[in-house]
């Protein structure tokens, strides 16, 4: 490339005969570069799915509902297995079943045994 620049600078006749870059070849180079970038993105996405589990939630019979890190090596995990909710303690290479939440109502907002906020507020106003 440096040789062609030197000959073009020394000889104006040769510079005029050099073919200019066409729009088609520039478009082809742009499309090729775009395909390479998209390929790199797809490879990185596949590696992140394999390594970090991105995009793999709830695809089987065991679903991870929530994780809570308590200490650096201790975690609480709420897991749903075939409709049963289990609270697991994970730490130091061990997994312990802390509670079987299958018969208990786990969502505080949908419990029927406790009154809602409006009812409690009304009862307090009456006192």
Account of the 3D structure:
The chain is α+β, with helices and mostly antiparallel strands. The chain contains four helices and four strands, in the order αααββββα. The chain has helices spanning 2-10, 12-17, 23-52, 117-126; strands spanning 62-71, 74-81, 84-91, 94-100. The chain is elongated, with a radius of gyration of 33 Å. 0% of the residues are buried.
Please give a quick description of this structure.
The protein has 127 residues and is of the alpha+beta class. The chain contains 4 helices and 4 strands, in the order αααββββα.
Keywords:
127 residues, alpha+beta, 4 strands, four-stranded antiparallel β-sheet, 4 helices, elongated
Strand order of the largest sheet: 1-2-3-4
Number of strands: 4
Note the run of SSEs as H and E.
Answer: HHHEEEEH
* Biggest pleated sheet: 4 strands, antiparallel
Terminal CA distance: 92 Å
Q: What is the helix tally?
A: 4
Considering DSSP H and I runs of 4 or more, what fraction of the residues is helical? 40-55%
Shape: elongated
- Regions with little confidence, pLDDT below 50 for 5+ residues: 106-110
Average pLDDT for all residues: 77
Residue share in β-strands:
25-35%
Rg (CA only) = 33 Å
Q: Which structural class fits the helix and strand makeup?
A: alpha+beta
Write the layout of secondary structure elements.
Blueprint lengths: L1 H9 L1 H6 L5 H30 L9 E10 L2 E8 L2 E8 L2 E7 L16 H10 L1
Antiparallel strand pairs: 1-2, 2-3, 3-4
């Amino acid at each position: 490339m440096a040789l062609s620049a030197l000959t073009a600078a020394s000889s104006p006749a040769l510079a005029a005969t050099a073919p200019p870059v066409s729009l088609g070849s520039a478009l082809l180079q742009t499309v090729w570069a775009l395909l390479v970038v998209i390929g790199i993105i797809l490879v990185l996405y596949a590696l992140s799915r394999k390594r970090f589990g991105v995009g793999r939630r709830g695809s089987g019979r065991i679903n991870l509902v929530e994780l809570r890190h308590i200490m650096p090596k201790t975690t609480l995990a709420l897991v749903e297995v075939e409709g049963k909710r289990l609270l697991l303690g994970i730490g130091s290479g061990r997994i312990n079943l802390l509670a079987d939440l299958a018969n208990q109502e786990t969502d505080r907002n949908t419990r029927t045994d406790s009154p809602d906020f409006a009812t409690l507020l009304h009862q307090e106003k009456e006192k």
